[in-house]
């Protein structure tokens, strides 16, 4: 249980996917303008990360690793995740229209997002077992949501500042993102201390 | 040989399998789109302004399909012509929509009121309003940086002498300016109503009078004068019910500060700007 908590909280705070590993930057910058779309996008990311891990881990463990095909993981993972998300979108549209309405717009955006692929590949390189992988995926997703929600707040402030003309728009956003990212360095070591 | 064949077969196999599953799924789980949706979408102007109260033209079309009782005349951009088309597609009786436009409920021009502070921050109303509620002496007054002007896609609202003024002819009542105004000074009203209260101050009469020459001081003269009982004073501010108002103009005559005005007053400064250009 303690190990699970360490994996979960490291994924959320210390190894935050967006702010420490710099994965998934394009949705981070693209969809963080408004709080509600940031939350919707993050919910979709959590959902897809969990699902992708649940599918890719067994594929690697049962299909690729025994046949010495580990080098194929990127190709196979992209293929599987992309078609899986498409399938889920179709199923949601048919059977759970309410969920499709809130997540549907974001699902195609993250079919092969690098954060989603990243979490599945990292689960393999870190040699997590299935449960640990799922916990790691959940933590990565929550970490993504934390970063998105925090940054949506920063973005709303950014709209009301008098930036020099050459910094207006994306440049000042990137600077703000780097400051938020730097603040996450402060979490280094926190998790080890918490669960010692 | 195997080191080439097995990976290729594996990836190809997964690809074909995924393709098959997706093809089958899209066949069996296809969601029927109402064929009227495309017609509705074509009939709507596609401005996606949100003036109908929905997120965009597609959202309004969907709402119409889901709720047959919904009025077909909500689109302010297309007006009667679009409402007619929508009614035909939906097969319901067409009812003429009353044209509307936006009104700014403030007349705190540079001549009528003053600034309480020198504000040097970003030149937007939202930013200025976040610091002690704006720079004006009156806490309810137009801030005058023109967030509404920036929001208007139809060049129908302008800053005249420190206050936003709507050009009733260009305004299509999409309501974007009303959403942009941090002071909530802008209302969408039926074009038929010609008399309006050009003040939003809920402060007590004496406070309003000190801050602005043309504020509503809640003296209740208009309330007593109005033959149709269309005017009510709530929280130190007169408001005119456009449903009851018959534009007789008696309230304009009795108002001691000139807070109640006719819309014709707005057009005068606009003409002055046009003359300068």
Polypeptide structure, described:
Chain A is mainly α and 196 residues long. Chain A has one domain. Chain A is 71% helix and 0% strand. Chain A contains nine helices and no strands. Chain A has helices at residues 2-14, 25-30, 35-64, 73-95, 97-103, 114-125, 130-158, 170-184, 190-194. In chain A, helix 4 packs across helix 5 (97-103). The longest helix of chain A is centred in the N-terminal third of the chain and has 30 residues, at 35-64. The relative contact order of chain A is 0.20. The termini of chain B are far apart. Chain B has two domains: 36-90, 3-methyladenine DNA Glycosylase II, Chain A, domain 3, CATH 1.10.15; 100-276, Alpha-Beta Plaits. Chain B is elongated. Chain B contains eleven helices and eight strands. The model of chain B has no long low-confidence stretch (mean pLDDT 84). In chain B, strands 1-4 form a two-stranded antiparallel ribbon. In chain B, strand 6 and strand 7 form a beta hairpin. In chain B, helix 2 (36-43) crosses helix 3 (57-66). Classes of the chains: A mainly alpha (196), B alpha+beta (277). At the A-B interface, helix 4 of A face helix 1 of B.
Please summarize what this structure is:
The complex is a heterodimer of chains A (196) and B (277). Chain A is an all-alpha fold and 196 residues long.
Number of domains of chain B: 2
CATH second-level architecture of the largest domain in chain B: 2-Layer Sandwich
What proportion of the residues of chain B is helical, as a percent range?
Answer: 25-40%
N/C terminus separation of chain B: 82 Å
List low-pLDDT spans of chain A. none
CATH fold descriptor of the largest domain in chain B: Alpha-Beta Plaits
The overall pLDDT average of chain B reads 84
Order of helices and strands of chain B: HHHHEHHEEHEEHHEEHEH
Number of helices of chain B: 11
Order of strands across the widest beta sheet of chain B?
Answer: 1-4
Q: How does the major sheet of chain A shape up?
A: none
């Amino acid at each position: 249980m303690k190990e699970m908590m360490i994996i979960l909280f490291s994924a959320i705070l210390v190894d935050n996917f967006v702010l420490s590993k710099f994965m998934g930057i394009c949705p981070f910058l693209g969809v963080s303008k408004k709080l509600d779309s940031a939350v919707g996008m993050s919910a979709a990311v959590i959902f897809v990360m969990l699902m992708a891990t649940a599918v890719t881990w067994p594929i690697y463990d049962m299909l690729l690793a025994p046949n010495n095909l580990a080098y194929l993981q990127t190709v196979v993972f992209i293929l599987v995740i992309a078609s899986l998300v498409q399938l889920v979108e179709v199923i949601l549209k048919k059977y759970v229209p309410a969920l499709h309405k809130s997540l549907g717009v974001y699902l195609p955006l993250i079919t092969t997002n690098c954060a989603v692929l990243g979490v599945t590949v990292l689960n393999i390189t870190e040699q997590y077992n299935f449960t640990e992988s799922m916990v790691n995926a959940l933590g990565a997703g929550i970490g993504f949501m934390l970063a998105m929600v925090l940054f949506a707040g920063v973005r709303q402030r950014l709209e009301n500042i008098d930036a020099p003309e050459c910094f207006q728009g994306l440049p000042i956003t990137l600077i703000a993102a780097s400051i938020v990212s730097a603040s996450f360095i402060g979490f280094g070591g926190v998790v080890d201390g918490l669960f010692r | 040989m195997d080191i080439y064949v097995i990976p290729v077969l594996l990836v190809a196999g997964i690809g074909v399998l995924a393709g098959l599953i997706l093809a089958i799924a899209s066949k069996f789980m296809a969601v029927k789109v109402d064929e009227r949706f495309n017609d509705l979408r074509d009939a709507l102007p596609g401005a996606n302004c949100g003036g109908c109260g929905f997120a965009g033209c597609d959202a309004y079309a969907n709402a119409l399909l889901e709720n047959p009782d919904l009025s077909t005349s909500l689109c302010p951009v297309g007006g009667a012509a679009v409402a007619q088309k929508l009614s035909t597609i939906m097969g319901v009786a067409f009812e003429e929509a009353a044209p509307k436009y936006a009104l700014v409920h403030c007349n705190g021009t540079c001549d009528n009121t003053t600034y309480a502070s020198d504000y040097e921050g970003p030149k937007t109303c939202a930013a200025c309003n976040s610091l002690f509620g704006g720079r004006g002496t009156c806490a309810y007054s137009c801030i005058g940086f023109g967030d509404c002007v920036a929001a208007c896609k139809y060049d129908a609202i302008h800053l005249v002498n420190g206050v936003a003024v709507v050009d009733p002819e260009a305004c299509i009542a999409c309501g974007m300016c009303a959403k942009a105004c941090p002071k909530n000074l802008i209302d969408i009203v039926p074009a038929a109503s010609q008399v309006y209260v050009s003040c939003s101050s809920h402060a007590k009469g004496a406070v309003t009078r000190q801050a602005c020459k043309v504020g509503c001081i809640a003296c209740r003269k208009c309330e007593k004068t109005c033959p149709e009982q269309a005017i009510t004073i709530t929280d130190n501010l007169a408001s005119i019910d456009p449903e009851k108002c018959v534009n007789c103009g008696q309230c304009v005559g009795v108002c001691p500060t000139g807070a109640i005005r006719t819309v014709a007053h707005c057009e005068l400064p606009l003409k002055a700007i046009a003359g300068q250009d």
